[in-house]
Amino acid sequence: MNKTDIMCDFILDRSEVLFTQHGYKNTSMEKIAETCEISKPTLYNYFSSKTAIFFGIYSRFQDGLAAKATEVMGQDKDKRLIIEEIIDLSLTVLEEKRSFLKMMVREHHVAIQECEDVITEHINFEFRRREENSRKLGEFMSDIVCPEILDQFGIPSVGKILVDLLEGAFWDSIMSEPVDHEKRKKLIMRLLKNGILS
Fold first, then answer.
1. CA nearest neighbour of 141 among 164, 152, 157
2. How wide is the angle at C-alpha 125 spanned by C-alphas 108 and 154, nearest 5°?
3. For the chain, is the Cβ count within 10 Å smaller at the N or the C terminus?
């Protein structure tokens, strides 16, 4: 990590706390700069707008989750256990970031109105990331998926099933009270075992 990356992470850390406590609308670039103990022009050297910081926090969350999942997939053990670990990891991170993610869903429309060009770029990036994650998971799971499922739907669709199930857990954790983590993991694994896994 270079000095710029370290500073960007520092700004994102402090901003995440502010956004979680005060919401997007009530968090200003001035407040972020003040909390980071830097000048506003210095803040703009690292991020072009409040919207860029806001979606930067979400992207960092997704990048971190993907990196951890890739690390878990590199382990030398039964792939079904690894899939359980990936589910467990995803549910744990969702719970840890629940307050920020809940605020993000509640207030993202304000960010969209403020900076449409950042939003378009962010949405395109998230679609590409989702496709890449689906492909990686599909390739990882391919040798434990029923051959007829693989033949009929293909590797990306197989990975997308797990991504969709995890996204469902994401929305459940945001829209309702925290769910029973272990129970949710068991349900997702049962759906996979009874649906696509051999």
1. 157
2. 120
3. N
The alpha carbon torsion through 182, 98, 140, 153 (nearest 10 deg) reads 90
Asked whether the beta carbons of 53 and 10 are under 8 A apart, the reply is: no
Query: What's the pLDDT tens digit per position in 14-68?
Result: 999 999 999 999 999 999 999 999 999 999 999 999 988 998 998 898 888 889 9
pTM above 0.90? Answer: no
Q: Domain coordinates of the chain in residue numbers?
A: 50-195
86's tokens: 């990936």
Q: Using CB atoms within 10 Å of the CB of residue 178, give its burial: 0 to 12 exposed, 13 to 18 middle, 19+ buried.
A: exposed
Contact, 173 vs 98, CB < 8 A? yes
How many helices and strands (H and E) does the chain possess? 10, 0
Residue 181 tokens read as 């983590």
How many Cβ atoms sit within 10 Å of the Cβ of residue 24?
20
Q: Are 49 and 115 in contact (CB under 8 A)?
A: yes
> Both tokens of residue 126?
């998230």
> Which runs of E-coded beta strand occur in the chain?
none
Q: What are phi and psi of 23, to 5 degrees?
A: 85, 170
* CATH number corresponding to 50-195: 1.10.357.10
DSSP one-letter string for 115-138: -HHHHHHHHHHHHHHHHHHHHHHH
Instruction: Report the sign of the C-alpha dihedral through residues 67, 73, 75, 81, in that order.
Output: positive
Q: Which amino acid type is present at position 54? A: F
